[in-house]
Structures are given as structure tokens and as C-alpha cells.
Amino acid sequence: MACHCSDDKTCNCSSGKCESGKCEMKKDDSKPKPCCVCLDQKQARDECLLIHGESSGKCQDLISQYKVCMKGFGFSI
């Protein structure tokens, strides 16, 4: 499913970023698409996981922050 962004651009859901750089909800959507929210938390989490790996335990705070952010938008991870 494609995300909907301003200027008729779509999100690159693999990177979580819009081609135009700004995501918006469609008028008929009740909430934004998952790839369009919590981008800063997702980037920090992903960078930590790439550097340290999930098994190191060093990224748990960042993972938790991302989950809390997503929950705030109504997503359950």
C-alpha cells in the first residue's frame, strides 16, 4: 500500500520517507500511513541496530521510543 504525500508524491515505504519530504493524510483517511510517522525515531533506531545489532541490547531505549511513537498514531507493533 502506498503512502500519500503532498504534491501527489508517494512515500518510499522501504526508507519511510516521502519523495517530496512531507507526508499528509488523505482527506478520507482517519490516520496517516505508518511510513509517514515517527521518522526521526525510526532513523535513530535503525542506525543503532545497524551499528550494534539487536542482540547487543544497546538499542532497547530507541526501540521503545519508536514503539511509543507509533502507538501514539494508533499503530501496534
Automatic annotation (TrEMBL):
Gene Ontology CC: mitochondrial intermembrane space
GO annotation (BP), single: mitochondrial respiratory chain complex IV assembly
GO molecular function, one term: copper ion binding
InterPro entries per record: Cys_alpha_HP_mot_SF, Cyt_c_oxidase_Cu-chaperone
Species of the source: Brettanomyces naardenensis (Yeast)
Family the UniProt entry places it in: Belongs to the COX17 family.
Alphabetically ordered keywords of this record: Chaperone, Copper, Disulfide bond, Metal-binding, Mitochondrion
One Pfam short name: COX17
Domain of life: Eukaryota
Name of the protein: DEKNAAC103391
Classification via Gene3D superfamilies: CytochromE C oxidase copper chaperone
Residues that coordinate or bind Cu cation: C35, C36
Subcellular location: Mitochondrion intermembrane space
Primary residence: mitochondrion
